């Protein structure tokens, strides 16, 4: 973001890095019509997987990110998965309002997945609530991280072009 | 791990659904849960699968059975997986279940 002052510096995160295997996890995965417990490992395959950690549903960066992903049509080329601390009911609303029926969102209110990925973010002014830093991981069919971006400022938005390059790279080698 | 043959479409806190879950758990029959939304109009998936917008709906891929109404499902599960397989005790279906 281009602002005439410095935004909050989150510092570096000790996050899952490129070349590592993305940790597997099981959480309710919310689609346009229902949710069910699913493991990340079941979802990797021929298509590249884009795993997008986003602020809680309703926060403006969540809206921006999903609008952009929708407009860029990532679901045509990749399995696009989100993860936030919001409940399945809120995820259903997000999918409908952003008009992204082909995206599926993991619900992780306890923020354990973000902890596992090294991207937990304590929220100032919301006692007892933490959520993931904004982050994007592109995974190949072996669940290997081929691209990782984790916010070091708050707020921050992904480099969408770089993610698309990573999607193309995984698709070519698949 | 193989996918369970039985899929149960359910609504959180729906007593008719919990009744079926209780029997599935007691019988030790593997199943997976798919949760749908409270509004009937948002339940296109069960309409497509079973022709109704009520839950529970049970799909058993091992027998090809898809059915709605908890009393019918209970009867089916007891007959198919229950000890003694005695469906005679099942209650009649409730007209307005799974609201």
Describe the structure.
The complex is a heterodimer of chains A (174) and B (99). By secondary structure, chain A is of the alpha+beta class. Helices cover 25% and strands 26% of the residues of chain A. Chain A contains four helices and eleven strands. In chain A, the strands form three sheets. Chain A has a seven-stranded mixed sheet. In chain A, helix 2 (88-98) links the parallel strand 5 and strand 6 (104-107). Chain A is globular, with a radius of gyration of 15 Å. The mean pLDDT of chain A is 96. Chain B is an alpha+beta fold and 99 residues long. Chain B has a single domain, classed as Glutaredoxin (3-Layer(aba) Sandwich), CATH 3.40.30.10. Chain B contains three helices and four strands, in the order βαβαββα. Chain B has a four-stranded mixed sheet with strand order 2-1-3-4, sandwiched between helices. In chain B, strand 3 and strand 4 form a beta hairpin. In chain B, helix 1 (15-27) packs parallel to helix 3. The longest helix of chain B has 13 residues, at 15-27. The A-B interface holds A 28, 33-37, 88-89, 92 and B 9, 32-37, 42-45.
The helicity of chain B comes to: 25-40%
> How large a portion of the residues of chain B is in β-strands, by DSSP E?
15-25%
The number of helices of chain A is 4
**What is the helical fraction of chain A, as a range of percent?**
25-40%
N/C terminus separation of chain B: 34 Å
Radius of gyration of chain B: 13 Å
Largest beta sheet of chain A: what is the strand line-up? Answer: 3-2-6-5-4-9-10
């Amino acid at each position: 973001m281009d602002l005439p002052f410095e935004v909050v510096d989150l510092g570096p995160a000790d996050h899952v890095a490129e070349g590592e295997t993305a940790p597997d996890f099981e959480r309710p995965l919310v689609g346009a019509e229902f949710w069910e417990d699913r493991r990340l490992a079941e979802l990797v395959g021929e298509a590249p997987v884009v795993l997008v950690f986003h602020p809680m549903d309703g926060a403006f960066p969540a809206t921006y990110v999903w609008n952009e992903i929708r407009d860029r049509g990532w679901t045509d080329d990749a399995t696009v998965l989100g993860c936030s601390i919001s409940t399945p009911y809120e995820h259903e609303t997000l999918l409908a309002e952003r008009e992204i029926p082909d995206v599926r969102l993991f619900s992780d209110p306890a923020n354990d997945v973000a902890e596992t990925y090294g991207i937990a973010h304590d929220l100032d002014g919301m006692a007892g609530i933490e959520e993931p830093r904004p982050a994007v991981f592109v995974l190949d069919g072996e669940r290997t991280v081929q691209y990782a971006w984790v916010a070091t400022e708050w707020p921050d938005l992904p480099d969408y072009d770089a993610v698309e390059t990573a999607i193309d790279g995984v698709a070519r080698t698949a | 791990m193989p996918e369970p043959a039985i899929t149960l479409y359910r609504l959180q806190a729906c007593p008719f659904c919990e009744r079926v879950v209780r029997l599935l758990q007691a019988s030790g029959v593997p199943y997976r849960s798919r949760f749908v939304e409270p509004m009937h109009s948002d339940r296109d998936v069960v309409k497509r699968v079973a022709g109704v917008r009520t839950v529970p709906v049970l799909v058993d891929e091992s027998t090809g059975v898809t059915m709605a109404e908890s009393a019918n499902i209970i009867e089916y599960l007891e007959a198919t997986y229950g000890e003694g397989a005695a469906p005679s005790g099942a209650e009649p279906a409730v007209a307005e279940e799974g609201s």
